[in-house]
Amino acid sequence: MKLWGGRFEKKTSGLVDDFHSSITFDQRLAHQDIAGSIAHATMLGEQGIIPQADAEAIVAGLRAIDEDISAGRVQFELDAEDIHMNVEKLLTERIGEAGKRLHTGRSRNDQVALDCRMYVKEAAKEAAALMRELCETLLSVARAHTETIMPGYTHLQRAQPITLGHHMMAYFQMFTRDMQRMKETCAHADVMPLGSGALAGTTYPLDRERVAELLGFSSITLNSLDGVADRDFVLDYLYAASACMMHLSRFCEELILWNSHEFRFVEMDDGYATGSSIMPQKKNPDVAELIRGKTGRVYGDLTGLLTTLKGLPLAYNKDMQEDKEALFDARDTLVKSLVVFNAMLASCTFRTENMERGAAGGFTNATDAADYLVKKGMPFRDAHAVIGHLVLHCVKENKAILDLSLEELKTFSPLFEQDVYEACSMRACVTLRDVPGGPSPRRVLESIAAGEAWLQSFTI
After folding, report:
1. pTM for this structure?
2. What is the mean pLDDT of the chain?
């Protein structure tokens, strides 16, 4: 008979057992569940709610079960429904009557909320650590390429020259925000719900603060209804994971483009590319494409749980069982993506000569040519028009701006002088953009140093 089966006259349908059970996936929470139970039993004994000898037997029994689970010696039972009841059933089988006292003063509702919070805290710290490793790779690439000129883009059209180091540091900023989101997720999950009971607390004199202390939580939940009904912290993790996957996907999209014959800015390492079953010449950026594709999967986890929660009345509803598969899937996908992306990026070969050649085409120095005229006294809007006409002429002549002679340039404005060739060179276009946060080598080095300092100070 099921542990809750006292008021039932018939056995649960086999169809319902299969549909209702969550042990196939929530067994992942075994270690969190056991840690929570150890803390709960310890507190029950200290408070005199159960005999101290029973509390000690429970704790010893749970630790043995935890070791057996880690060693793969435990076979979970579908009939026991979930990880909580599987552990309790095992415990009672091993230590007898004392095991039946473990569930005193708690419900599976607050028990699973506790397990999930512990899991999210660990998952957020894990993700932030992997993001830190990626940020360190980005800093390394950026430092090696503070002088590597490449075209910057808007609308996927060549816009202005920047450096590869500057481009890498843009992604560094994105991933540091992702790290901060994981830190905030961890803080939101760091609230201990045990003691909320099914929804209305309990009549037993529980010491909730003691349980929080034993489990390393910074505070306890302040409302028993919210304690069992809240899954915002899971949504926080799913959103943080989605944002990080979005940044990975954008980066992958650029690497995919840069790897194409049309760009030829990067060469993927053979270890992170695949071939074609029919076209022998192919070297496909499949790893980057797969990360880009998996981003939608994590979005789906977030959207699915938001939809599940949107119509639920207080407090606990069985619908909330759906939170765990979304959480586990997002965690697995994010971790795998971060690990393989970091390795892929570190192994990339950047074709700097093609990047610099790309920056020289497409009139990326047109804005600098307009600024040149402004510095000579021309209003910017007039300078914009002059350079627009100049670019149109160059397009028709299939020339770059600096391919024109000074005499040709003067036909567009008498303000052009010999110094225009230096002022509008690719190197000058980058070096003179020396505002804080800009692409000049000096500013990129400042950004790298600030990034290194931020990583050293970051804790979660």
Report:
1. 0.93
2. 95
